């Protein structure tokens, strides 16, 4: 009797486990999807830069503080995700006066909108690599955005790492970056090129 | 009016260079003083962008002007000048040419040291003359502003001398740089 009861309990437990195993991949948590690796940013070996036209010449800046979450499997793009959060106050164009102006109310308004955010829940394969399709929020304005990128993995000192790089163009006025006379695009261009080379570490 | 200079008169091209640069220097002073009073703003960026473009234009014109001068006669100074006046005239003109080079060059260097590449009206971007360097920028800013005051002083001397020649000495020194006038001889 005891043996039979124990066997029944074991069978019930096995059935529950099976149901759970079937349910989880369909659930909201991509983190548990099969084959997916979870990557975080190696900030010291990563760069997020932007290039803009000022007074007819190309000028460069970068963000020194940002976070990246990347859940990825080349064989399971449906469950792959990219999430980037940028601290706007970390913008550095190499000129204090310009940086202060950039973070001010008419441009980034970093005090009111401290972060920019890109959340992609769709990753597509393209001819030259991948493309993250999602929502980009800057200065409180959210718009659809596509960010093409390349990605390769490597094993370094026994650790799984990934290298991601890409470039995209953002029209600053689409996000209200430029109020008042900064709406003019003759001296500060509307198109801003954002490029990134990231070293990611699987965890 | 002839295109080339004669012994007694500046030709059309030399006059064009002279007066065009006069107008552009006035534009430069205006743009710089307008921008100077402004806080960082799009308007300030626009004014300074134009100031830089016009400055590079002056630099190009001064190079062409000196080339043309070297291929041409230089009208003679009046015989009536005393040796020190002759020296002062030569010195003032040399100083003007040096300053017309030094102003745009120090401005261009200053922009490079600040880390702001110089564009010529958006058509092309000039190479950086010096690497980005904060203290060098501060030095060049002071240099550029000091040279502007020196230029102002030398121009004042130049204008005063031209007016003296015209109204007191009554010779043709001013008239021979003016279009729409005739200058018959060395001592009209």
Structure description:
- The complex is a heterodimer of chains A (203) and B (188).
- Chain A has 2 domains: 1-30; 33-202, Lipocalin (Beta Barrel), CATH 2.40.128.110.
- Chain A has 2 helices and 11 strands, in the order αββββββαβββββ.
- Chain A has helices spanning 2-26, 96-103; strands spanning 37-41, 47-54, 57-63, 66-72, 81-87, 91-92, 115-125, 130-138, 141-156, 159-171, 191-202.
- In chain A, strand 8 (130-138) and strand 9 (141-156) form a beta hairpin.
- Chain B has 188 residues and is mostly helical.
- Helix content of chain B is 64%, strand content 2%.
- Chain B has 4 helices and 2 strands.
- In chain B, strands 1-2 form a two-stranded antiparallel sheet.
- The longest helix of chain B has 35 residues, at 134-168.
- The mean pLDDT of chain B is 94.
- Classes of the chains: A alpha+beta (203), B mainly alpha (188).
- The interface between A and B is medium-sized, with 19 and 22 residues.
Summarize this structure as a short list of keywords or feature phrases.
heterodimer, A: 203 residues, alpha+beta, Lipocalin, eight-stranded antiparallel beta barrel, 11 strands, elongated, B: 188 residues, mainly alpha, Fumarate Reductase Cytochrome B subunit, two-stranded antiparallel ribbon, 4 helices, 2 strands
User: What's the CATH H-level superfamily name of chain B?
Assistant: Transmembrane di-heme cytochromes, Chain C
Fraction of residues in H or I helices of chain A: 10-25%
Number of domains of chain B: 1
Backbone shape of chain A? elongated
The largest sheet of chain A is:
8 strands, antiparallel, barrel
What integer is the average pLDDT of chain A? 89
- Name of the CATH homologous superfamily of the largest domain in chain A: Lipid/polyisoprenoid-binding, YceI-like
**Topology, number of strands of chain A:** 11
Order of strands, widest sheet of chain B: 1-2
Low-confidence stretches of chain A: 21-31
Oligomer status: heterodimer
Shape of chain B: elongated
End-to-end separation of chain A in angstroms reads: 47 Å
Q: Rg of chain A to the nearest angstrom?
A: 22 Å
């Amino acid at each position: 009797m005891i043996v039979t009861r124990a066997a029944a309990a074991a069978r019930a437990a096995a059935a529950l486990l099976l149901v759970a195993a079937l349910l989880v991949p369909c659930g909201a948590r991509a983190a548990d999807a099969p084959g997916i690796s979870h990557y975080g940013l190696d900030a010291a070996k990563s760069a997020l830069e932007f290039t803009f036209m000022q007074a007819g010449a190309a000028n460069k800046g970068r963000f020194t503080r940002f976070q990246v979450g990347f859940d990825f499997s080349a064989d399971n793009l449906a469950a792959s995700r990219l999430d980037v959060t940028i601290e706007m106050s970390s913008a550095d164009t190499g000129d204090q006066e310009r940086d202060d102006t950039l973070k001010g109310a008419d441009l980034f308004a970093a005090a009111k909108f401290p972060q920019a955010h890109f959340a992609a829940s769709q990753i597509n394969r393209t001819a030259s690599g991948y493309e993250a399709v999602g929502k980009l929020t800057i200065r409180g304005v959210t718009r659809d955005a596509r960010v093409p990128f390349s990605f390769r993995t490597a094993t370094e000192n026994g650790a799984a790492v990934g290298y991601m790089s890409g470039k995209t163009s953002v029209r600053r006025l689409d996000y209200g970056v430029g109020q008042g006379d900064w709406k003019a695009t003759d001296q500060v261009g509307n198109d801003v090129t954002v490029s990134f080379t990231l070293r990611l570490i699987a965890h | 009016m002839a295109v080339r200079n004669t012994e007694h008169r500046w030709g059309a091209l030399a006059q064009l260079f002279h007066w065009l640069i006069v107008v552009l220097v006035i534009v430069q002073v205006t743009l710089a003083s307008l921008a100077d009073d402004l806080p960082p703003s799009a308007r300030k960026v626009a004014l300074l962008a134009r100031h830089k473009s016009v400055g590079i234009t002056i630099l190009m014109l001064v190079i062409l002007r000196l080339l043309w001068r070297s291929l041409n006669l230089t009208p003679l100074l009046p015989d009536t000048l005393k040796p020190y006046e002759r020296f002062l005239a030569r010195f003032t003109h040399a100083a003007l040419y040096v300053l017309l080079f030094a102003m745009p060059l120090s401005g261009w260097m200053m922009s490079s040291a600040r880390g702001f590449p110089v564009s010529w009206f958006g058509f092309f971007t000039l190479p950086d003359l010096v690497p980005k360097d904060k203290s060098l920028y501060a030095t060049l800013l002071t240099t550029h502003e000091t040279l502007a005051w020196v230029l102002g002083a030398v121009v004042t001397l130049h204008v005063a001398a031209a007016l003296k020649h015209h109204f007191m000495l009554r010779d043709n020194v001013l008239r021979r740089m003016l279009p729409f006038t005739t200058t018959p001889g060395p001592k009209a």
